[in-house]
Design goal:
The chain has 273 residues and is an alpha/beta fold. The chain has one domain (2-266): Rossmann fold. 28% of the residues lie in helices and 21% in strands. It has helices at residues 52-60, 82-101, 115-127, 130-133, 165-171, 205-217, 256-266; strands at 2-8, 11-18, 32-38, 64-69, 103-113, 147-151, 191-196, 221-226. An eight-stranded mixed sheet has the order 1-2-4-3-5-6-7-8, sandwiched between helices. Helix 2 (82-101) crosses helix 3. The longest helix is centred in the middle third of the chain and has 20 residues, at 82-101. It starts with a strand and ends in a 7-residue tail after the last helix. Residues 79-158 form the Alpha/beta hydrolase fold-3 domain. It comes from Companilactobacillus mindensis DSM 14500. One of its GO terms (molecular function) is hydrolase activity.
Length: 273
Amino acid sequence: MQTQDLAYQDTKFTLDTYFLDPIADFETQVERPLAIICPGGAFRFQSDREAQPIAMQFNAAGMHALVLHYQLFDGDTPVYPLALQEMATTLNWLKSQKENHHIDLNKVVLIGFSAGSQIVANFNSIMLDPEQREKIFTDELTVEPAANILSYPVIDMTLGWPKDEDWAMKISPDIYYWQAQEHLTDHGKPTFIWQTVTDQAVPVMNSIIYAQKMDLLGIPYEMHLFGSGSHGLSMATYVTQNPGNEANLNSNDAKWWELCLNWLKLQKILPKF
């Protein structure tokens, strides 16, 4: 892992990069897909359980990975729109890295967990629509994601998370950014969604309303709602278990990763074999 510092205007932010090395004995190097990961953490912090372990899973599947340390509420600066501008800056930066790291820029995937998923959903809704994007990001978006993965996502901040409206106002004093589904257009990309119906922190209706809007717009999606399990599962295996916390383990919910890989193959982001 290496750290990369980027900036949007005067604001600096950081990426953790997990680029796969070229295979020396290949006569022709493979251009590989890439995942940009937005960990959760209620916009207060970013969970390590949803960072490096997820990046390493993508590496094992043959994909480059980045962890985006997006804007959190720091007591002064709200999350939005800066987090979306940082994502756009990251995507544009990838173009300069294409040759160095053999990146397939047509196969970039955004993946979010919990609060990080709202950044991905809002990006899919707002930043891929040129008319909405130009209001907050005046540069051209030279690289667009091909697909999204939403893991127990916050979509609509009026649906039960956060419970405190004051915290929502700190995340974004502009309520435009509160409801990602409201701004989704047919510019949105195919999306994989998973959550548990017993999620105690983020109501499952968040996933349902985003899938419903995608369905209305004819955007391809796949959604898996598991019958039990807590919020913040990450991989739902011992790999991401906080020692002693049995709620981090769920063998049924852990199947989301296999289902996700299969979906990436259906989207032709990963090869079938």
